[in-house]
Amino acid sequence: MQYDDLPIDALMELVQQIVAFHMKFEDLASSLRIALLLDNIQALALLGDFIEKDDTIIRIGAILGLGIAYAGTNKDELRVRLTAILGDSKSPLEVLVFSAITLGLVHVGSCNEYIAQTIILAIMERSESELSEPLTRLLPVALGLLYLGKQVILWNDINFCANFSS
């Protein structure tokens, strides 16, 4: 196909599609840059509203940006907002996965049972076709982040459950 043969309207439409595609990824990068440059209070104020946007790329950028900004803080407001996303069966799989990763980052090593149960329920509610997506392999990573550095506690819980079931 020769671009010389296309009418100007078709070329303009093609340019608009390319620019729109680029802007989606630029918004993601901007969200991550904001999280890295600002302190926690400003990051939540600037990125918090973007969690609810319709555009999946913008949502993921805001969610990951908040995860970076609040890593290890156990910020309860993020727990409330992100577990709501995990509990929403209409949330796109990508948004669900990165919400779980962000919860793992924010609550790393906390052994937060509520978050762990919410992630497990989100896994159980998804279809087999969704769970076959490679991206879902990050859900167990999110669970692992919750128990990072707490293997002794985790093994005690697993052994207790094994003994309880027998």
From TrEMBL:
InterPro entries: ARM-like, Proteasome/cyclosome_rpt. GO terms for biological process: proteasome-mediated ubiquitin-dependent protein catabolic process. Keywords: Proteasome, Repeat. This is 26S proteasome non-ATPase regulatory subunit 2 1A. It comes from Dendrobium catenatum. It comes from the Eukaryota. The keyword Repeat applies. Pfam families: PC_rep. GO terms for cellular component: nucleus; proteasome regulatory particle, base subcomplex; proteasome storage granule. PANTHER family: 26S PROTEASOME NON-ATPASE REGULATORY SUBUNIT (PTHR10943), 26S PROTEASOME NON-ATPASE REGULATORY SUBUNIT 2 (PTHR10943:SF1).
